[in-house]
Design a protein that fits this description.
- This protein is of the alpha/beta class.
- The protein contains twelve helices and 16 strands.
- Strands 3, 5, 6, 7, 8, 15 and 16 form a seven-stranded mixed β-sheet that branches. A six-stranded parallel β-sheet has the order 11-10-9-12-13-14, sandwiched between helices. Strands 2-1-4 form a three-stranded antiparallel β-sheet.
- The radius of gyration is 20 Å and the shape is globular.
- The two termini are 20 Å apart.
Length: 352
């Protein structure tokens, strides 16, 4: 089989190689999956650079998050799911937890507890993106922040994939959103998507606009994936007792010095207004949640996508051989389209 392998940590286009490898054999409790489509996430590239929350043992197959495929074989004594069944593989490495197979290869072995059946009418593009961004949005809104109908939710990077999903989910649940973007051109797009209020940091004061929008009651819950000064302003904008969950650091993605990965919080605001700032990382959630809880959350996400409550934008397909072009698209600013590695299979060619 073909596999896209990083020979060492470094810039993805410098260290990735297309290799021929033996098809792996599943053990008890595992399934062999014929991969159909798998996305290229920014986190996948950070893993290869050695700048993420975990590091694989190199050489390592790339793709550390998710894919969709069909069950090709089962390990000894394993009787479900059925051979031929179409499944999503939640390949997110649990922290703490054992290593998992990378998804950028034609076949991979996965624990059956990490497999979620998906209906055939759901496109490969949507199915292969179920287990990371939609799940993150669901967990942030309903579990980490427990936002209730009628409450305000303040979020940064509203135009990101997770940000858009948060808007869609919030509208479904009756939650009002204040959405922060950095470009004036994005404001109308976010409003059209269903964002209740939009703040553009290009020409507006974030703290002032939050106060004007939410009134005396203020905002108690916020999600941030930018960090840096913007994350600090979100914390400052919260009402006393407010809670900020930080799940990313987009403003620091080009930083290589760990000391530069900061959120310059105002101590007076945090202390005297008893605000909480804490992190969320999907990998650590998988490391603490039971397999039953994880599959239940994934099944809920699947239902929201199938019912079209959550809309996952169509990705742009690339064969494994075109990984340089695919990585370039993933790195392009405001690319808007998720690059996907799509592996040919005549039975499912109509779902590419």
């Amino acid at each position: 089989m073909l596999a896209l392998v990083a020979v060492k940590a470094g810039e993805p286009t410098d260290v990735l190689r297309l290799e021929s490898r033996p098809v792996p054999a599943p053990k008890a409790g595992q399934a062999l999956i014929r991969v159909k489509a798998t996305p290229i996430h920014a986190s996948d590239l950070h893993v290869l650079r050695g700048r993420y929350g975990f590091s694989p043992t190199f050489p390592a197959v790339g793709g550390a998050m998710e894919c969709v495929g069909r069950v090709a074989a089962l390990g000894p004594g394993t009787d479900a799911p059925a051979v031929g069944e179409r499944v999503v593989v939640a390949a997110v490495p649990a922290v703490p937890g054992p290593p998992v197979a990378g998804t950028w290869q034609e076949y991979l072995v996965a624990d059956t507890q990490r497999l979620l059946p998906v209906p055939d009418h759901l496109s490969d593009s949507s199915a292969c993106q179920l287990a990371v961004n939609p799940l993150t949005a669901l967990l942030l809104v309903t579990r980490e922040l427990d936002v209730q109908p009628g409450e305000w939710l303040l979020q940064t990077a509203a135009g990101s994939t997770v940000g858009r999903l948060v808007i869609q989910l919030s509208r479904h649940l009756g939650i009002r959103t204040i959405n922060v973007v950095r470009r004036r051109a994005a404001v109308e797009e976010i409003k059209a998507l269903g964002g209740d209020e939009v703040i553009c940091t290009e020409d507006e004061d974030l703290v002032q606009r939050v106060a004007e929008t939410a009134g005396p009651a203020g905002v108690l819950k916020a999600a941030d994936c930018v960090a840096g000064p913007v994350g600090a302003q979100v914390s400052q904008a919260l009402a006393p007792g407010g809670e900020l969950v930080v799940y990313g650091a987009l403003s620091t993605h080009r930083q290589t010095d760990p000391a530069a990965l900061t959120i310059p919080l105002q101590a007076r605001s945090v202390i005297y207004e008893t605000k909480t700032v804490r992190g969320f990382w999907l990998n650590r959630w998988f490391g603490t949640a039971s397999p039953e809880i994880a599959l239940h959350a994934l099944a809920r996400v699947r239902g929201l996508v199938v019912d079209e409550v959550l809309s996952i934008p169509q990705g742009q397909p690339f064969p494994l051989e075109h990984f340089i072009e695919a990585v370039a698209l993933a790195e392009a600013p405001a690319h808007g389209t998720k690059p996907l590695f799509v592996i040919e299979d005549s039975r499912d060619a109509d779902r590419r």
